[in-house]
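User: Predict the full complex structure for these chains.
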Amino acid sequence: MHDERRMCRRCVLDESAGDITFDDDGNCSYCSEFLKRFGAVDAPTPAEEDLLRLVERIRRQHRRRRYDCIVGVSGGVDSSWVLVRAVELGLRPLAVHMDNGWDSELAQNNIANLIRGLGVDLYTHVIEWGHYRELMRAFIDNDVLDIELLYDNAMQGVNFRQAARFGVRAFLTGSNQATEGILMPTGWNWMKYDRRNIRSIAQAADIRLQPTFPAISVAQLGYYRRLRRVAAIPILDYGLYDKESAIRHLETNFAYKRYPYKHYESIFTRFYQGVILPKKFGIDKRRLHLSNLIVTGQMTRVEALSELELSPMGSSRLEEIEFDYVIKKLGYSRDEFEDYLNRPGRPHDDFASEKWLTDLLKRGRGIVRRLT
Amino acid sequence: MDRMRSVVDAGAGEVMVQSVPADGMLSGPDRQVVELLSGATVPTIYGGGVASIADMGTVFEAGVDAVAVGAHFVFYGPHRAVLITYPTAHELAEIGVRDA
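Assistant: Here is the predicted structure of the two-chain assembly.
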């Protein structure tokens, strides 16, 4: 359907990425920027020794605390591996999980096996499903793109609150350059600390954002980062993160079950990336992930292209089953949902937002950097 | 005991007793209730307070036929995290439960 889009010659990103540009060789601005930033990823800048120094510092900081660090777990490979690494490095993590009602059974099992196997403490925040559902419906009815903003924002809120509650300053995250270093293309998601946007979209559907919903705003993020001095540390960027051997280690030692594809630990995320984004917004997130694997030498471009030939949901039968499940859980009829998929999207900044604040802070930091 | 006898006499084919004080407390099974059930003439189910696989073993050893478990399967650790888990076939075999 979008075959006429120009595609990068090095990776597989195409013009569905908002402000993509191509150089004379046909290579795109996204993978070029990544390569410029990180050079060869197999020689990462912060090395293993830096990691040991970091771990020492974290332990010193938390000598009198019950936990050394917070690790958010989803049941996916990256966060599972962070938890394993934290324990291996001698840290005492508190694992934190937010359940939004869409955990796959596989994810639940993976988390359970991991937590019990490692013997670490777990804190879970189960979001009230009725409210979460009405918020999701508000996002869908208003045709905005980033429905996952609800989960991603609240998840961060839960993590930072638990960090503050236990006086923990290290929040280890699974974000990593090796598998997700290329920047998220403009227009593929929304700023994740935009509580005002969530509230405003909810209001447009006559829904009041409940105080129990653990949303986090830019100001609150600033509070946790600056005043409570909680730092998000992408621990997988220290040393080489080899995802495949991480999965094998998890499978052998923690009865881990792998997912067919990245982020498929949540039924909704799978449906969002497999159906809503491609059908309604013309975005195939696999392009970004596969491009990362290409530029870091973990996959050839030919392999990536043949993978893109397959349906984003894996099989049409699976798509059919999941479609029925998801619309039933959200309370839509098939016609209503088909209508939604065919309607054009509506931009997030049609609603009140605090993105201007992060833009301003970013610009401010840029100016300070130039002056100093 | 009298009450249980009366429901059995009235034709109950199976009796389940839930110890309300122990319910959700993870404090171990209520011995009195377990004892009461062990003398029954119909199949019995005990529920309340079960906090470990060993607790289930204790209830079975007393002669109760089945155990109902809630909090222990749902909550995990000091923060009462919601983590739904069931005993493995291996763990169940250790307390003599097969074909679960």
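The first helix of chain A runs from residue 29 to 38.
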